[in-house]
Amino acid sequence: MTNELLAITGDTAAEIAESVRSLIDRGMLAPGAPLPPVRTLADAIGVNRNTVVAAYRQLAVAGTVETAGRAGTRVAARSVVAQEGFAADTVLRDVGTGNPDAARIPDPSAALATLAGRPVLYGEPTIDQGLERWAAEWITADLPHRDDVRLTITGGAVDALERLFAGSLTRDDAVGLEDPCFLSAQRTVRVGGYRPFAVPVDAEGMTVDGLRAALDAGVRAIVCTPRAQNPTGVSLTASRAAALRDVLAAHPYVLVIEDDHFSMLSSAPFHSIVSETHRRWALIRSVSKFLGPDMCLAVTASDPDTAARLAERLSPGSTWVSHLLQRLVVSLVTDAEVTAQIADAAHHYRTRNLAFAAALTSRGVPTTAGDGLSVWVPVPGPGRAVAEQLMRRGWLARPGEEFVLRDEDAAHHLRLTVHDLSDTDAERLAADVAAAARSLAPIRK
């Protein structure tokens, strides 16, 4: 029996998992090191085998270990999790950023000059009154069927997701995520120790059969993007939203989170999957896409119980969102010139993506531009292989594999952010994508 086996302790799955983490942190279990077989460890520490299985599953969900069937369970090698944004230290033209156009983010200089006022002190309300009035009108207009809406302000959409999960889930709970899925949502679920359950997405959004399978599997929460789903760009149709509401009717206490990240920039109407009778829900709208990623603020509308859970994690004096930032946001979004700039940016993203999709289609790569900041491009082979071909031509692209939970077909895609390319560069990229796709066409089975 190894020293590592002797050092693993615990009576519950959580205690055993924490013991293994401690050994890894202290360097006693290195990346690639095998963990004891389930039966061996269970006998050694005097617990049921199912307890060890649950502990190993918790570790696997968190990415701490990797399982390989009969080959056993090993400590996972540390790896960099794919994240949105510019790639560091590259000489290639980066078309995988997912960023808004910096030139189309409103200048806050004039608004900043209006923010002088008395300081906010401990114990005061966490929401600025002006922002609350604007947000209530903005959100409740799309939720006319709900008379129980409560508002919370968080430090962005990911912050809202983390807090919603923490207030409603426990480690190892299953969460339904769209497949392919937004990178930050994947990371938030995995780092929190929850289990992602893949729900396929098609041209109308989250699929009915996929949602039904997730609910049958016992998910405790569902994350749905009603518009501009990232990475595909699809938006829910009215009929699909109605069908999803019908499926959810039998599960009123499953937490349904709608991440309407594109909101004011979207060309598609908002269709909610939350019915008037659903008991646990939240609608998140961040300002980062139209006011810039540095504006770390999101408005979350939810039922009273969910709002109360969020409020417990946003207490004045520790984690509330800066009132200066809140005042800045409301000053910008109520300015007619700024809202006109936002509308112009929305038109820009839409027309540039449509033009690029048309350029690809004319070159033999049929592409449909959805909503959002990027274009989801189908290619006749693994996206990573096509991205490697593009690197040789001077481009850094985002392969579909990074967004995939289970859908292998989604891996045969690229997500390209092209709205800030000149006409000449966009044409050159379209030609290079088509050439790379042709060179790999025989790979597809």
UniProtKB/TrEMBL annotation:
Protein name per Swiss-Prot or TrEMBL = Aminotransferase class I/II-fold pyridoxal phosphate-dependent enzyme
State any single GO MF term: transaminase activity
Matching entries from SUPFAM superfamilies are given as: PLP-dependent transferases, Winged helix' DNA-binding domain
Asked if the keyword DNA-binding belongs to this entry, the reply reads yes
Key words, A-Z: Aminotransferase, DNA-binding, Pyridoxal phosphate, Transcription, Transcription regulation, Transferase
Organism the protein comes from: Microbacterium dauci
Q: Give the matching PROSITE patterns.
A: HTH_GNTR (PS50949)
**Assigned protein family:** In the C-terminal section; belongs to the class-I pyridoxal-phosphate-dependent aminotransferase family.
Which spans of this chain does the record mark as coiled coil? none
| The UniProt record lists the keyword Transcription regulation | yes
